[in-house]
Amino acid sequence: MDKHGHFTATFLNCLDNISHLLILRCLIADSRGQVMSLDIEAIRADFPILDRVLPNGKKLVYFDNAATSQKPQVVIDAMSRYYEEYNSNAHRANHTLADEATTALEEARSKISRYFGTTPENMIYTSGATEAINLVAYGWARYNLQRDDVVVVTEMEHHADIVPWQELNKEKGIEVRYVPINSKTFTLDMEAFEVALEDAKLVCVVHTSNVLGIRNPVEEIIEKSQAVGARVLLDCAQGAPHERIFFDNMGADFVAISAHKMAGPTGIGCILVKSDAMAEMGPFMTGGSMIRRVSTKGTTFQEGHAMFETGTPRIAEAIGWGAAVEWLSQFDMKEVHAHIHDISSWTADQMLEIPGIRVFGDPNHPNSSGAVSFLHDSIQSQDLAILLDEGGFAVRTGHHCAQPLMDALGVPSTNRASFWIYNTLDEAQAFVEHLRYVCERFA
């Protein structure tokens, strides 16, 4: 090799040895670059809780975003204005406050449905993704499935997308089939999925795993399910905070979403429903608002989404969620995903260098979200979480409402650090350093 070749090889070797941390810092800091244009410090300034100092004197580092995200000031202000200025029940009266509350509720529906690429008529307010899935189970499946009809679910599902089908198995005798994961790749076994599809009437699959951070091949799943005539329910509680969901273009029949994981308030979510599927649905809960006429001889119901929104609406929560999607709309979600992915993949790589740490899933996969589940071989997960909290780091611990997945992984629980738009690589570096300290001292 000539001296120029030797120099080139040496230079490349040096590049290989540059810390991944420094590379990512450069990428994130360069707001003019194609990789990242997010002003993270400005974003963080929108979230007052991120300045919180914990009782032990440590500044909060919030890595529990897959459980719930923090809320920007615009969401807090929008909900406070409702309570301070025009608190009233919607769709109930003709006085000024009631008119203002009704207008705000329906404006929020328009904003939220538009954000998800559909119309207000195809969106039903729920208390969250859990109620949304139950609405499909008891508002569609109960009316359309018979004994021995097949519902396909996966081992990755949240309990909210398993238990309703088990209950319908007991109630109506439907068959529930479970698609396993590949234990080596932590991905769905798509060959087993195709076998399970035979005679299926409904396919229920999580868009993105809350434990593994893996985005499932939902496009392929929808296409193959439709080919056999099965309707598709997607649990997008974890997907919506990381990518734009355009319901009308997806092909899924039902999409369940929670507000509180995407900068909105708790207590509200929605189910997006194709028009032909909604026409097949019947009442889930009954009471006020969802009726057209009640007499001692019987009841007639409202049509469309109004049939499924009984009782006092979630007015403040809807207004808050509307403000949240307006806030999120200013960002390119592909850039948001890239930012989160850079942090989570770097963190996972560094954690794997700590003796005794195991990471579940593949945080380096391009489609992986910001969830990194891990365990230490000799420190119990609950103890590890407490020790991390002593350093100011909020992480989730437990089975994550996904015990069948824990069984498939062969563990009772995991710790989970999950990142979102306002997290930084400096926080991740401090987290890894504290985790290394804890493991060295207590392992």
Tell me about this structure.
This protein has two domains: 19-68 and 332-442, Alpha-Beta Complex (Aspartate Aminotransferase, domain 1); 75-328, Type I PLP-dependent aspartate aminotransferase-like (Major domain) (Aspartate Aminotransferase, domain 2), CATH 3.40.640.10. It contains 16 helices and 15 strands. It has helices at residues 3-17, 20-29, 40-45, 73-85, 96-115, 129-144, 163-172, 190-196, 218-227, 247-250, 275-278, 315-328, 333-351, 381-390, 403-409, 425-442, and strands at residues 61-62, 123-126, 150-154, 175-179, 200-206, 231-235, 254-258, 269-273, 291-295, 298-301, 357-360, 371-376, 393-394, 396-398, 414-418. The strands form four sheets. The chain has a seven-stranded mixed sheet, sandwiched between helices. The protein has a four-stranded antiparallel sheet with strand order 11-12-15-14, covered by helices on one side. It has a two-stranded parallel sheet with strand order 1-13. The N and C termini lie far apart (48 Å). The relative contact order is 0.15.
Short structural description:
The chain is of the alpha/beta class. The protein has 2 domains: 19-68 and 332-442, Aspartate Aminotransferase, domain 1 (Alpha-Beta Complex); 75-328, 3-Layer(aba) Sandwich (Aspartate Aminotransferase, domain 2).
Shape: globular
Number of domains: 2
CATH fold type of the largest domain: Aspartate Aminotransferase, domain 2
Number of helix segments? 16
Total beta-strand segments: 15
Largest sheet: 7 strands, mixed
CATH class of the largest domain: Alpha Beta
Q: Share of helix among residues?
A: 40-55%
